[in-house]
Specification:
Helices cover 81% and strands 0% of the residues. By secondary structure, it is an all-alpha fold.
């Protein structure tokens, strides 16, 4: 067993700071997705409007996109650990707001309508715009270059385990104990996140202030140019942006759970967890067989499989089949997640990682929220099922175009790239 745990796949987890980072990532992801399930169910219960679920994505993406490039600049010249700590505190404030808003005796819903929910969603989007480049950049400082693919695999595994835990806890606690204990649990998880950060040894700044004298807008432009001049980075980011934009069905899960599958908040929590369960299974496989050879083709095939899973899910009226489709979407998605994360880490220098990760967060992170908005609008005008089928078909078309137009991505091998 000892020899097994000291193998190449497990070497990176012997790094204490990396282990603490994984614990932080688990708690942060669990809390955020737990809150997402609770907010989605609560909002749909109040409004009974699919467009309101789409508005969640739009409200979150506006501050995220607006701040991302500026955040990337400061992530590259400021203390990354401190940035993460202070922005995590903002999530504590947002979860506290939702907790007090939901206390029946305060009658805040009658006084303020649904505005406090969207204020919290706005805060969450603002924080995500900062945390995504900060977390990516800090991870690159915590491990060696030759450990980056393994670190990306463990980080993805942790995220997906949390993506099972968070939605499941959110749905189950909400369903069996009520909304107040559910929001209290979210607050507690964010509090633990803050505590864990205190124990991670600070790796310090990568670039001293004197090295950033050229100015914020010049440095932001450098980050954007870096991505657009690197064909592999640009192709990977663009592929995921459009695939997620059209292929995501998660935003509409409250409607599927309530009106089509009729499984309640407990079933919603399980459905939200299914993609992550599939991703965890694939993560275990990729831990021992990382996608470092023929990485480009594996990325393209996995996105295609994701699109097929979404189409079948949209057409299903059986809870088991629907859950299986979401499970398979997670299996395929995790391959592309790990390949893209490895591409970003390997093809980007440490002093550029904050800015490149910020561009990545606009390409990829914002596509989730814009995809939620697109899903809400499409469901309103096309109908729920046709809109999700349309999104899956668009994903298949996009990956086909990417395979045709991007030979750099089609021929990518991470194993060869890490040597250079």
């Amino acid at each position: 067993m000892k020899k097994f745990l000291t193998g190449e796949a497990f070497e990176v987890v012997h790094n204490r700071n990396f282990r603490l980072f994984l614990i932080y990532r688990f708690l942060m992801t669990s809390a955020t997705l737990m809150q997402s399930v609770i907010v989605g169910w609560q909002l749909y219960n109040i409004t009974k409007d699919v467009l309101s679920l789409g508005m969640i994505g739009l409200t979150e993406v506006i501050p995220q996109v607006s701040i991302a490039l500026f955040a990337g600049h400061y992530v590259d010249i400021w203390d990354r650990k401190k940035i993460i700590f202070y922005t995590t505190f903002l999530l504590l404030i947002g979860s506290a707001l939702l907790f007090f808003y939901s206390i029946p005796s305060l009658n805040m819903h009658q006084l303020f309508g649904i505005a406090p929910i969207f204020v919290t969603i706005f805060i969450t989007g603002l924080v995500r715009g900062i945390l995504m480049p900060a977390n990516t950049a800090l991870l690159g400082q915590l491990v060696r270059r030759d450990q980056l693919t393994a670190a990306a695999t463990w980080s993805s595994t942790t995220w997906h385990i949390a993506a099972v835990t968070g939605p499941a806890l959110g749905g189950l606690v909400y369903g069996f104990f009520g909304i107040i204990p559910a929001y209290a649990l979210v607050f507690t998880f964010y509090l633990f996140c803050s505590v864990i950060l205190l124990f991670i040894k600070n790796p310090g700044k990568v670039v001293q202030i004197a090295g950033a004298a050229e100015g914020i807008f010049i440095r932001i432009k450098e980050g954007i140019s870096y991505v657009f001049e690197n064909k592999v980075l640009l192709s990977a980011f663009t592929l995921d942006m459009f695939a997620v934009l059209f292929g995501g069905a998660v935003a509409m899960l409250p409607v599927f759970a309530s009106d089509i599958l009729k499984v309640g908040p407990e079933g919603l929590g399980f459905l939200r967890a299914c993609p992550a369960i599939g991703a965890i299974l694939m993560s275990v496989i990729l831990t021992f067989k990382p996608p470092v050879s023929r990485s480009g083709p594996q990325l393209l095939y996995s996105v295609f499989g994701f699109g097929v899973s979404i189409i079948v899910f949209a057409l299903s009226t059986n809870f088991i089949l629907s859950a299986f489709c979401l499970f398979m979407s997670g299996v395929f998605d995790n391959v592309s997640v790990i390949v893209r994360a490895s591409i970003l880490q390997i093809f980007t220098s440490d002093e550029m990682k904050g800015r490149v990760a910020a561009v990545n967060s606009i390409f990829i992170g914002s596509s989730n929220e814009l995809g939620a908005f697109e899903s809400g609008v499409a469901a309103r005008f096309m109908g729920l099922i046709p809109s999700v089928v349309f999104g899956g078909v668009m994903t298949l078309l996009i990956v086909s175009v990417a395979a045709w137009k991007s030979p750099a991505l089609r021929n990518l091998s991470l194993k060869e790239s890490v040597k250079h």
